[in-house]
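Dataset card, provenance and construction

Sequences and ligand SMILES were collected as paired inputs. For each pair, a complete structure of the chain with the small molecule in place was predicted and serialized as structure tokens. The example below shows a pair involving zinc ion. Curators did not alter the output after generation; any descriptive sentences attached to a record were derived from the structure itself.
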Amino acid sequence: MSRDAFCSCCGGSLKQRYVEGRERQVCSRCGRIHYKNAKPCACALVIRDGRVLLVRRAIEPFYGYWDIPGGFLEAEEHPAAGVVREIEEETGLCIRLTALLGIYVDTYGAEDEYTLNVHYLAEVVSGEPRPASDVSELAWFAPHELPLDLAFRSDYQALEDWQRAMRGEFTPMALT
Ligand SMILES: [Zn+2]
């Protein structure tokens, strides 16, 4: 916890206290508990001819590393809508979601900056892939030729789950 943390309600200083089974930040003035939560993100493994679309990051953290396209959700946004928006922004592709692959907890750069990542499988509806915001390059990878310089732990986990699904070891969840 940062030593200069203050309460967003009253401006009082936050203290580390053991509350509800774990260390939490509690306001020394108004007593409010400041819960830490992961930021929700949505990503898509866009599949075409058995290959998955990955993007090379043109922003920090992990500038230059390969990543599954996606991003942070807006406050009111459902992951299924947010991921379609993010993929269009990053790749120019209009996609259709085909299944829910998995949900992964990860960190974004800093150790304590947690993300909750909803990963979908998707297919291309229209558009030509072109690198757009935050992305310098796009490429399609077969399951056996995935790049080794992936940005995030959740990239490795989701791609491993995709490989398992391709081998028939588990079935991604149908979307209702
Ligand atoms: Zn307070």
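Derived descriptions for this record:
The first helix runs from residue 79 to 91.
The pocket of zinc ion is lined by residues 7, 9-10, 12, 27, 29-30, 32 (CB under 6 Å).
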